[in-house]
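Quick start: load a record and inspect it. Here is Short-chain fatty acid transporter:
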Amino acid sequence: MLKMISKPAVKLVERYLPDPYIFVLLLTLIASVAAIAIERQSPLAVLRFWGDGFWSLLTFSMQMLLVLVTGFMLASSPPVKRILQKIAGTAKTPGGAIILVTLVSLAASWINWGFGLVVGALFAKELARLIRVDYRLLVASAYSGFVVWHGGLAGSIPLTIATEGHFAADQIGVIGTGSTIFAFFNIAIVICLFIAIPLVNRMMLPDEKDSVYVDPKVLDDEPEQMGRITRPAEKLENSMALALLVGVPGLLFLLDHFLLRGGSLNLNVVNFLFLFLAIVLHRTPRNLLNSLNEAIKGGAGIVIQFPFYAGIMAIMVQSGLAESMSEWLVSFATATTLPFWSFISAGIVNLFVPSGGGQWAVQAPVMLPAAQALGADISRVAMAVAWGDAWTNLLQPFWALPVLAIAGLKAKDIMGFCLIQLFITGIIISIGLVWF
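Running the structure step on this input writes:
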C-alpha cells in the first residue's frame, strides 16, 4: 500500500516542488503578505523587518557551513570511510540497504544532527556503489533519520532549558534532561521511530521498472593522486608531522574543555571536534585540502539561502505573526491536548523559522504561559515544540541542503518519499506526546 501511495506522492513532488532557493523566495513573499494582511503592518515596516534581519544569522550560517565541511572531511577520512564501507558490506539486498542507511542515519542524528546529516549522505553513496537500489529512496532514507535529532543528545530546546540562566529561567526554572530527553515519553517516541521509519522506507521501495539508479562511477569522488614530490612546499603539504603538531593539540584542548573545565557540548565545540579529528585522520594537509575542495562544493545553497531565512524569521518575529499563529493554535487547547497543539504549531512555524533555537525564542513566550495557565506539563510542552521543529523538516528542504549537496540530487528527488514519512511520523509523535 505504501509503495502505491508513494508513487503519486513522488510524482507530485517531482512536478511541483521547486528548487529550495525558489522555495525560500516564495516563503519570503508569503511571510511579507501575511504580516501586512494579518498583523496590519505597513509595507515599509515589513520591508525594514526583512532588511534589518537579513544578516542576523551570519554566525549561524558560518556554523552550518562548517557543519557540512568539517562533517564531510571527517566522514571522508580513510578510517571513517573504512568503517562505513565495512558496515555497507553487510547489506546484501536493496531492501536491506534501505533499512541499514535509515538506521545509521537515525543513530547518528540522535547523537548529533550535523553528524547525522553528513554521515547519512555519505553512507548512502557508499551503499549505492555496492548495491543496485533506487538512489532517490536511498538518499531520502538517509535524510528521514534526521527527524529524531531534537529528541536526541544535541536537541537545542531541551539543552537550552537545562542550562543555568536561560532566557526563561525566571519563569520555569532549570529543567534537567531527565525530564525531557531521557523522559519515558520521549524515549518511547524515539524507539517507535527507530522501528517505524526504516520499515516505512523499506515498504516504499519501488519496483525495478519504476526505480531510478545511479552509475557507481558517478559517485567516485576520490581525489587525484599526487605525483612525485619535488618542491619543498609539497613536502610541507604532505607532512604527517605538521598535521599532528596542530591536530593533536586541538584534541588536547577538547580534553581540557570537557574533563578539567567541565565544558558543555555546543555547535562550536562539535565543529572544532570534527575539524581536528579530520586533521589527524587525514594524516597530511594535502589530503585534508583535497577533501575540503570536495566538501565546499555543497555549501552554495547554505551561503545564499540562510540570509533569506534570517529575513523571514525577522518578519515572523518582529511583526507578531509567529506569536499570533501560536496563540491561535493553543487558544482551544486543554492541559492534555496542549502538547499536541504545541507540536502542530511548531511544525507550521518551522516552515518559516527553520531553526530550533530561534523557534524556541519565538514560541516560548506563548507556550510557557499557556502551559502554566492550563496546568500542563511544561517539560512535555517544550519537547512538543522541539519535535514539531524536527518533524516538518521532512517537508521543508532547508536542512536537506547538505544531504542533497553530498548526494548530488535535488529536493524534488527525495521529498515525495519524505512526504509519506511526514504523515506517519506525525501520528507517532502526536500519540507519544499525548498518551505515552
